[in-house]
TrEMBL record:
It comes from Sus scrofa (Pig). It is an enzyme of class 3 (hydrolase). This is Phosphatidylinositol-3-phosphatase SAC1. GO terms for molecular function: phosphatidylinositol-3-phosphate phosphatase activity. It comes from the Eukaryota.
Amino acid sequence: MSNLNTAKVVVIVFLEVFISFGLGIYGFKFLLRHTTPEKFYVEACDDGADDVLIIDRVSTEVTLSVKKDIPPSAVTRPIFGILGTIHLVAGNYLIVITKKKKIGEFFNHVIWKATDFDVLSYKKTMLHLTDIQLQDNKTFLAMINHVLSVDGFYFSTTYDLTHTLQRLSNTSPEFQEMSLLERADQRFVWNGHLLRELSAQPEVHRFALPVLHGFITMHSCSINGKYFDWILISRRSCFRAGVRYYVRGIDSEGHAANFVETEQIVHYNGSRASFVQTRGSIPLYWSQRPNLKYKPRPLINKVANHMDGFQRHFDSQVIIYGRQIIINLVNQKGSEKPLEQAFATMVSSLASGMIRYIAFDFHKECKNMRWDRLSILVDQVAEMQDELSYFLVDPAGKVLTNQEGVFRSNCMDCLDRTNVIQSLLARRSLQAQLQRLGVLHVGQKLEEQDEFEKIYKNAWADNANACAKQYAGTGALKTDFTRTGKRTQLGLIMDGWNSLIRYYKNNFSDGFRQDSIDLFLGNYSVDELDSHSPLSVPRDLKFLAVRNLYIFHIVKSILFEDRDGASSP
């Protein structure tokens, strides 16, 4: 290869990396934690690095030093990142990543899943605590460990996982020079509260690792002898985060419960394409608190200013994503009907040309296991999807097309029905992308590529399970259709089992789960003198006394749900 051609290749690669990802301030890949009775030392072990983060266990002061200051008597352990710090009854705790699993490589950037953590007390003993404080501190530690035990924490020390490809392509030179923490989309930084002390000191930002919660899978695929990478990323928002029946609707800032941004990415011969969708709770002020019924009746707040929160929500969505095509999948009869009607009325009242509303009664249309009828909805929105398009950039970093808006799908939980529809819309977009990139021949159908279809369906089913476990506490329902393209009796039975587990968790353990998330995200702070601590709220023990009376009724209603068109969310 001539020097001129070599230079061209170098320039193209440089442009690709710079335009899409920025040169920024990367985090450290290799760390060692050294512990003494007085201090934590976190040593950067990357080639050429001499930085050491020092945390004083008494004063809590954070400083930057060099390796020569590490005392030889310190106890040393390898770690893979600092999640942050949190204050509990006993004082401050340092949370670090101790195990990780490689998910794959994303344009030469390694993506990891954090699989184990240590929660380390600053205090050397607990002798300063009373017996009640000791018990409270133990409970708060259990809350933190519960959140950390929920699968789905991802990170990269060199790539910004919180942004879509399209957002990363449309950034300023100043953005490119920021650290990963500074430039991250704060909606998806689940340890943002834990990093508040480190974020206040820019000189230590390389030790501050933004962590995403959600789902990521990567696959090397082949169609027609052409190899490409296919990636699926779901980013779960930390705003109005929580568990199924405890967090519904929106808050005063317009943040929707269970909001998830899902991006599907293709990388082929240097070209990159992506298609983004969102999901989120119906953006009104409503609730659905557990009351031992299988499906508690949702209640719409009759005194709240719904338009204020509704408009805040969609103003932000339009700014971030562009046009909004709402697909509302809830039942148009029974207890879900008032929510569907209220949603439609609010869209009509807002009268925005950037918002389109489509109601599709999933259970009515697909009753008696007629899931082939989902094609009615896909065909209905096909022209709109073509108008929204997708993001595409060539190997030199030139943007060929932008995605002009998103489908915002919802059901009651924004889990099972929502994931099915999202997977169908994503496949249609992928079909167009692969044809334009030359992977698929003209007239070829993606559904006919058996090997890839298996990868695709299983990945979307895994995505459904991850989102469901994080919000509802169990795997998703209806994944037999996502995995196989058919609704089966075995799938119906598994849905019954998962629904029964959801019922139990929603009624008897989700209060603890919600408190745990709120503590982790900083929605409340621990203060042993605060009488409003969640630990001081008594449980309603009548739930425990009567729960067994409902089991037979629940099992019966679940196993026959699809036959009469009434189903769980």
